[in-house]
Write a structure and sequence with these properties.
The chain is mostly helical and 142 residues long. 72% of the residues lie in helices and 0% in strands. The N and C termini lie far apart (42 Å).
């Protein structure tokens, strides 16, 4: 049941990305172009997503187990540190350069667009680089 619900949630998320235009790099870059011809439509999509998530997140904070019986996994840390800021900057730069973030990249990948394949390959390389640097840092501390 967990895999089926994950598949359905992913399918709905992907359809939402397509319908909202968030899987279209040109539309995303238009939203990020504050100095040029700014397209504010994605701000409405983001505000709508926040509105839809408010009640489920409030429910999740009050329960230790999900509706399907799994453990609720919410972040424990709430502080802003150097790693959070650095990761946010790298994410933002990548989003601004490509006009795509991981969710829409998977939608493009499923659609067979070469840009999706390139983005996902670069994303996986970045994840591998992070894991390697993290392991190196931990081995130096030991």
């Amino acid at each position: 049941m967990t895999r089926i619900s994950a598949f359905i949630a992913g399918l709905l998320f992907g359809m939402g990305l397509l319908l909202s235009g968030m899987a279209n790099p040109t539309k995303v870059l238009g939203f990020l172009d504050l100095a040029g011809q700014w397209d504010p439509s994605l701000a409405l999509v983001m505000a709508g997503a926040i509105g839809v998530a408010l009640l489920p997140m409030a429910w999740a904070r009050q329960h230790a187990v999900s509706l399907l019986g799994g453990a609720m996994q919410l972040p424990a840390r709430r502080d802003i540190d150097r790693r959070l800021v650095g990761g946010s900057l790298i994410f933002g730069i990548g989003w601004g350069l490509a006009g795509v973030c991981p969710g829409p990249a998977l939608v493009l990948l499923a659609g067979g667009f070469w840009q999706g394949w390139l983005f996902v390959a670069a994303m996986l390389a970045g994840m591998a680089l992070f894991n390697g640097l993290e392991a190196l840092s931990k081995s130096r501390q030991a």
